[in-house]
Amino acid sequence: MQYDYLIVGAGPFGSLFAYEATKRGKRCLVIDKRDHVAGNIYTENVEGINVHKYGAHIFHTSNKATWEYINQFAEFNHFVNAPVAVYNDELYNLPFNMNTFSKMWGIKTPAEAKRIIEEQIANAGVDEPRNLEEQAIRLVGKDIYEKLIKGYTEKQWGRPCTELPAFIIKRLPVRFTYNNNYFTDRYQGIPIGGYSQIIEKMLEGIEVRLSTDYFDFVKENPNIATKTLFTGPIDQFYKYCYGELEYRSLVFDTKILDEENFQGNAVVNYTAADVPYTRIIEHKHFEFGTQMKTVITYEYSADWTRDDEPYYPINDTRNNSLFLKYRELAASDPHIIFGGRLGGYKYYDMDKVIEAALGLVEKEFEESN
Ligand code: FAD
Ligand code: UDP
What is the three-class DSSP state of 327? Predict the structure, then answer.
């Protein structure tokens, strides 16, 4: 065998594993079907602005060890995610907090906001939420559901809220303080100089082959490595033998504008059903940019077919049990490891990817010592 590990996918999971394995004297080959490293966290410098090519990425964690780990590779700025939502000609702060409630109902105190929300919940008569619509109304009442959740969520997931699982919305923070910080984590920021350099540093000195699809590569190189770490879709690896897992895809439309400041914020969500995109990202605001030009990206949610990028796993009951069948199949082969967002079919943020990859490192190397 030429290599100890063939690592499929130069995203954060595969690259971190390659970095740690190489440090331990293992021979690694990393391949990626794209023509660049960094997976979905890839940033590209356009007009001096680091453009998040696959959607807005904000690093946040409460785990000090994870924060320190990523800080080996980059210095982070003090960006705080405070998105705003546009509904017709109205603009609201996110996440749902006292600024949102005050604008919505012209009130000032948490007690007033709670009273209105409780009234709306009682009027809706929802006790045990059975779907996303009912869960959302139970969380924030009818007004916020109708203006800020319904249209956005239906665009995002391509299905009516009454047919979506309640857990999707549980991730959205609701608070009765004047605090627009989307995340509650202790550490948050954007790497100065962009995300790609982090992955480039991890892969320094490691053999990487780009524009190389595993399924073609393996036909010509069937016995190249003792083990394979696969960070692409697990169902595709097994030729969909138990059926297809479902994903949501995205379409990004990026424009360079000859103006300094287009929307005054990094992330603006469009929550009305009749606006076709879900959000507009203005990349310079992630790094407090002062360039004369600006770069913006319209983000559209899209149905997924096998030819599209699978951005979001759809973790409903059907898909989760199908995934478990694939995972059982994987467990029977000691030469293959699955990891990352697609291999693990899990809605992992970057911090969780780091933790999972470090967990794999421990399993592969510490346990055997
Ligand atoms: P990926 O980054 O997807 O990398 C997988 C790589 O495998 C890709 O480069 C792909 O080309 C390659 N690959 C797949 N199949 C093959 C094959 N057959 N042959 C060769 N190569 C293959 N996280 C946060 O923490 N904060 C955020 O704000 C945030 N925002 C996000 C916004 C969007 C729109 C999306 C989609 C994700 C967001 N994330 C965010 C999550 C973040 O992108 C993931 O946690 C991270 O990219 C997962 O890393 P990964 O290595 O598992 O997978
Ligand atoms: N959401 C919403 N309105 C918004 C933003 C989010 O209703 O303005 C809902 C929507 O259902 C979405 C979920 O909250 O799927 C999680 O959104 P978030 O932006 O946190 O997740 P991301 O898409 O960035 O992973």
Answer: helix
Instruction: Determine if ligand 1 sits within 6 Å of the CB of residue 340.
Output: yes
**The CATH number, out of the four listed (3.40.50.150, 1.10.10.1020, 3.40.50.720, 3.20.20.210), of the domain defined by the range 3-42+53-77+188-247+312-366:** 3.40.50.720
Would you say the C-alpha torsion 34, 193, 342, 80 has a positive or negative sign? negative
What is the rounded distance in angstroms from the CA atom of residue 340 to the CA atom of residue 353? Answer: 6
Pocket test for ligand 2, best of 153, 162, 312 (most atoms within 8 A of CB): 153
**How many CB atoms are located within 10 Å of the residue 211 CB?**
10
**Whether residue 77 has pLDDT greater than 90:** yes
Residue pair 10/32 in contact (Cβ under 8 Å)? The answer is yes
Ligand 1 atom closest to 351 (CA)? 25
Q: Note the pLDDT tens digit of each residue in 154-199.
A: 999 999 999 998 888 877 789 999 999 999 999 999 999 999 999 9
